[in-house]
Records
---
Amino acid sequence: MAKPLIVVTNDDGIDAPGIKNLVQVAAQFGELLVVAPSSAQSGMGHAVTVNVPLTFKESEMHAEHLAYACSGTPVDCVKVAKHILGNRKADLLVSGINHGENSATNVLYSGTMGAAIEGAIANIPSVGFSLMDFSFDADFKAAKSVAAKIIDQILQQGLPNGVCLNVNVPKVDPEGLKGIKICRQAKAVWDDKLEKRQNPFGREYHWLTGQFESADTGTDSDLWALHNGYASVVPQKFDLTDYNFLDSLCNWEI
Amino acid sequence: MAKPLIVVTNDDGIDAPGIKNLVQVAAQFGELLVVAPSSAQSGMGHAVTVNVPLTFKESEMHAEHLAYACSGTPVDCVKVAKHILGNRKADLLVSGINHGENSATNVLYSGTMGAAIEGAIANIPSVGFSLMDFSFDADFKAAKSVAAKIIDQILQQGLPNGVCLNVNVPKVDPEGLKGIKICRQAKAVWDDKLEKRQNPFGREYHWLTGQFESADTGTDSDLWALHNGYASVVPQKFDLTDYNFLDSLCNWEI
């Protein structure tokens, strides 16, 4: 049987430690095509590059694996990977391992998950991995063991059309990880702050910052899992229709 | 009673004809705060600016209405609007009118809808409007009449927490519009093409282009409505959890 063909991407850039760790895990399962941004693309969500052209070129970054650095966003990288593969179809797309968590509504801002959702749109079983540690020298051991289990299961069981997985791992040793929990996306949002500064020429600028706030007390959410020592797995879909509200809307006078 | 406070934004930029038309409609219903990108931000989806600072400054672009041009994405504009309002809470957020449709999976790539979804995350009743005509001198008459009806209904009826509306209008005269249809998001995706070019210095670059392809034959989709002369209204939510798949996922061996 042919080895599975696995596309690897991320949003922290092709040289980030997170993607190096993910390449190591994915290489145990199949043949890899790495297409990742040439520079950091955090917070790019599902952005695509339409107003300027894209460039991509082969990279030596991932040793024996075929790898390309792309000028665009994580979603662009998925489109470039499909272009490079031509008639071959990927069996799996893995994105990450992100330096920083992507739980709750962060899934919308996340380039890591933008790529995974784009994979699902392209009908490729897809998963994004994120570690609850922003530091560049984070310890990826626990995240790698979770990623190996999830990749193994996706390759065995597949994923339904239109669904990808959002996997987050807390900052713990592999021995400290309590397990892997299937969750829903927590109802938690950013309380944004715009921090004002002045440039050397006297002009104002702002940094977008803030606190992530949750009023969600459910024990079935991804945030709960992460804060209680579990890795979280949320099945995410790209049909955003709120079917529950469709009927009431039909009563509007329009 | 105080006039409703309405935030207006878009993704085509503060000087686009679409937002000028939307400002005219919204001004009939309340007091406006316009915060829009200083340059075109098409395809930015739910991107936020995290790696560089944001700037924003007052703009004369919208005559008597308080308006700011922002260096960032449509989602950034919503965050800046909240910052400017401080303790005041907007009663409504309107985004658009986009030059080009945002039906089906385009909702994910759309900066227009990124802003509307961010409005919903901030618990502001929010709606994005798009016209199925990319041209800068498009006729916005039909779109304006639809926008007026939808704004009126949202102000009267409200929207549930966590839901915003995605409104698309076909390229027709107001008399040619068959009506407004409540729809689900169509199952249709881009068949991407990367068009290869060479720059004057011999280096390769690519334009991301393609065909929008639909195998969705349902008459309840937004694409069907638009191709049959109706404006479409899809309620969209930002909880991406696929609740139907949660149970099967619990049987995985992880």
---
Amino acid sequence: MSLLDEPRSAELFAPSQRRSRTIDWQEPGPVARAASTMPGIEVMAAIRDGRLPPPPLAKLIGFKMAEVHPGRIVMRLDPEQSLENTVGMLHGAVAAALLDTAMGCAISTELPAGQGSVTMDLKLTYLRPLSVRSGTISAEGRVVKLGRQSSYTEDFVYDGGGKLAVHATATFAMIGAGPQHRSPPQDS
Amino acid sequence: MSLLDEPRSAELFAPSQRRSRTIDWQEPGPVARAASTMPGIEVMAAIRDGRLPPPPLAKLIGFKMAEVHPGRIVMRLDPEQSLENTVGMLHGAVAAALLDTAMGCAISTELPAGQGSVTMDLKLTYLRPLSVRSGTISAEGRVVKLGRQSSYTEDFVYDGGGKLAVHATATFAMIGAGPQHRSPPQDS
Amino acid sequence: MSLLDEPRSAELFAPSQRRSRTIDWQEPGPVARAASTMPGIEVMAAIRDGRLPPPPLAKLIGFKMAEVHPGRIVMRLDPEQSLENTVGMLHGAVAAALLDTAMGCAISTELPAGQGSVTMDLKLTYLRPLSVRSGTISAEGRVVKLGRQSSYTEDFVYDGGGKLAVHATATFAMIGAGPQHRSPPQDS
Amino acid sequence: MSLLDEPRSAELFAPSQRRSRTIDWQEPGPVARAASTMPGIEVMAAIRDGRLPPPPLAKLIGFKMAEVHPGRIVMRLDPEQSLENTVGMLHGAVAAALLDTAMGCAISTELPAGQGSVTMDLKLTYLRPLSVRSGTISAEGRVVKLGRQSSYTEDFVYDGGGKLAVHATATFAMIGAGPQHRSPPQDS
């Protein structure tokens, strides 16, 4: 027994209710290879300036690298409907995308060529809902402690009015090393 | 001074390296209004069965509601390139999207019409990298404790081979109530 | 089969290896009743100045309230051997005691008489080990967002040399209200 | 100006309101050296059986190792007043002490002699308050994933009536190695 009758269901799926969007991105493999020869802060600056393509997910979600500083990165997003959850707010994963990227890239700004990091754990606290009416959203990621085996970062996400919407902290495992040791993250 | 020369940059942006994908979704407003008159587990079953459209972000990321049980939801995803980060793995926000949704929907299965929840905090631990070669990814969200003001959930994300890839816990704030406020979720 | 032979075990339990310490505290019930009639910041100042007894656990662990500011509290600890774990470092729960207290008290400084908070969740990241050789440890808790139903705080724990040892964030549920429920904390 | 008058303050500090308790423990250094030659599960069994002294903090808080299994440890505590916070509940750090220990020891049960772990991050969610009226509290820590560089664990804390009071997850950095490499955790 369903409480959703057929006519209602048909109406919700009507073509008049359909929206669509085409996204495009650049093949990430060649980008990663080019980036692996550059110091992290150069890679970030090149993405910010449009000389290196951003990763596919950045195009999918629609966020951009806005500022690159040693140990600090700002990402920006102009939200739109495809990012909404069922109740018409931005899905929590949208902020997660911005801030995970901002924190990982903040670490990269401190690393030499060939080194990187992968997220080990991520804790988000949602303090204020975000929606398509929130204006341009920004996520500021900064390095709290850079380590040899792991690094710790935090991030503040603000809505367009400058109000704090999400706070996050994350620990990243450090991977790779100088030219002589470029192994992928081993699975422990 | 940049280490990325012009010819290299042009090559990375070459049309031959461009990929694209068109996503479509249904306008979420009417869906939310229809859903607000149904018990949560009916809404989830209707989305699973294709009688109610999923939220826009589910179409953007590409995940589907696969199983609906009282207090437990399974989401599934067949990953593809637009979900990748710079180094060709799935971006951490992809798992966040699946598991945040699975946990929030698991709470919904226990709620009467007109009630819902919003994520207060979310903690993810990444245990194994995911990629387009991971097979069908599944996220099982379950309610640990249902409360009147907040509820606590956990989620296990597995790769296609059944290996645990991500574990998450989340606290949700309980919101709304039907017009008659019929039987709020009991505080266990 | 045990690898720990009898003589070795006896030696480890020898009276010459025994240490002891007597702790004392004041019965907490009357303190809580007295405190319930005072604005939070007055309660904190009274504990800092020795006019109100600290809670029993503060005497057990040995930490003291050192600074009281609106929205910010500093706790201090001179560590000693009874706080050690098996490998001779301070047990992780020691920092947890300081910082959970500092954050909860930071919220109290913003609350009128009769209102308080309880910890909902607490996330600690250990960045540097602490020991009895760490000098005077300090934990600075501050309110990030004060809300009507929940509040969010963060805390930095430093060793005696001023190096960051632990970072923590916590969400507290807001409880109680004075008889007249005068001016609840505004939701910023 | 203080709202706490002198006579009231004197009364709260009256000898009739004073409680005290003497704790004792064994010097931890020799215990650590003895333990370093035994497989972790043997060390845990020896502590459980009273052949090895527990760490000082376990005596301070009053918890005991109750069960030792491969990958799983149960700690128990009979709470008493010195563990209380200002409002007469058990301080949040008490559960933190039990569960951090239980999880770290659960990892130890899987390790050979000379290896150990240190807490990197710890996330606790408080689901039900604990007090001296909660009966015997138990904390069950278990290994979710054992890794070479880090391991992931979870813990459920129950009150004496078997109700879930706290849930926690933690990541530990793996330290030490076989007899040939017994370096302390380097500070990154």
